[in-house]
Amino acid sequence: MPLCKRDSAWFDAILKNDLVFVQNNLEKYQRQYESRSKGAGIRQGWAGIHYAVELNHDQIFEALFPYEFDLLTDKPTELYCPFLDRPASLDSGSSIIHIALTTNNVKVLQYVFKQWVENPEYGDLAGVKNDSGQSGLLVCPVVNTDAAMLWATNERVIRNEITSVTNKDQNFVMMVAMMGRVAYAELIKDFIGEQAKLNIDVQIEQLKETIQELMESLDDEEQGWRHYGEQEADQLNYKTFAEEKQKVIDILAEVEQGFEDSDE
């Protein structure tokens, strides 16, 4: 990936939300990467659009989107997550979606969804995995932001990402069980039923069968979703509570029992 070693003015302008400079210098600097490693707000290996998402610089984001929507971060970093109330690790190879989910940038997702309708070529953003193998959907139960739930209830996202697994073969059901997120367990239950939370006219075919496969799957250490549900709740780092983890186990167990009953 190219690194912008010649001139820091481009990234400084984005950090300062200088839309005029960005508009006047798009052709010169677009698709360049930050080479600096020190300084307030500096993130080495980021492109301009990544900064725009993190900083909620909406107009700059929209100006850069046609040029840089597909760029991935070149270095791991930590971003403040409002739900976790601490910096959350974000691996290299992350997209604007990973950043938006972590920082709770709902406007970015709404803009992306609109672009999907008007310009189908941008749809490839659903399905991008970072260097840890995390799709946006797999990040959602971890960061647990409003933006995350918005992403997890989008039809295109579910079609493209529901079967994704991390480099350790951890799937969506496992992540929900590990994090103890009741709302996501209820979402899984909805996926095998009316799919009302997806707000679609025609149900996604085979989604019920896909969820069953996820519940039966094992990670790279031959562990299933129950193993993750039974892990100790990490209240300090992930705001995971024992009571909520038990609720998640109960909901997923009900889903699992429904599959077993239907197979008899």
Please name the defining characteristics of this protein.
Serine Threonine Protein Phosphatase 5, Tetratricopeptide repeat, 2 domains, two-stranded parallel sheet, two-stranded antiparallel sheet, 4 strands
Question: In words, what does this structure look like?
Answer:
This protein is mainly alpha-helical. The protein folds into two domains: 1-68; 76-263, Serine Threonine Protein Phosphatase 5, Tetratricopeptide repeat. It has helices at 9-15, 19-24, 26-29, 48-54, 58-68, 96-103, 106-118, 136-143, 146-152, 155-161, 172-179, 182-191, 207-216, 225-229, 235-238, 242-263; strands at 3-4, 33-34, 77-81, 86-90. The chain has a two-stranded parallel sheet. It has a two-stranded antiparallel ribbon with strand order 3-4. Helix 11 runs antiparallel to helix 16 (242-263). The protein is globular and about 65 Å long. Keywords: Coiled coil. Residues 197-224 form a coiled coil.
Give a summary of the structure in a few sentences.
The chain has 16 helices and four strands.
Element pattern in H and E: EHHHEHHEEHHHHHHHHHHH
Enter the CATH topology name of the largest domain. Answer: Serine Threonine Protein Phosphatase 5, Tetratricopeptide repeat
Strand content: 5-15%
Ranges with pLDDT <50 over ≥5 residues?
1-5
Please report the total strand number as a whole number.
4
Shape: globular
Q: Write down the Rg.
A: 19 Å
Which strands sit side by side, in order, in the main sheet?
1-2
Tally of helical segments: 16
**How would you characterize the largest beta sheet?**
2 strands, parallel
- Please tell me the CATH architecture of the largest domain by its name: Alpha Horseshoe
Distance between the termini: 54 Å
The CATH class of the largest domain is identified as Mainly Alpha
Counting structural domains, the number is: 2
Oligomer type? single chain
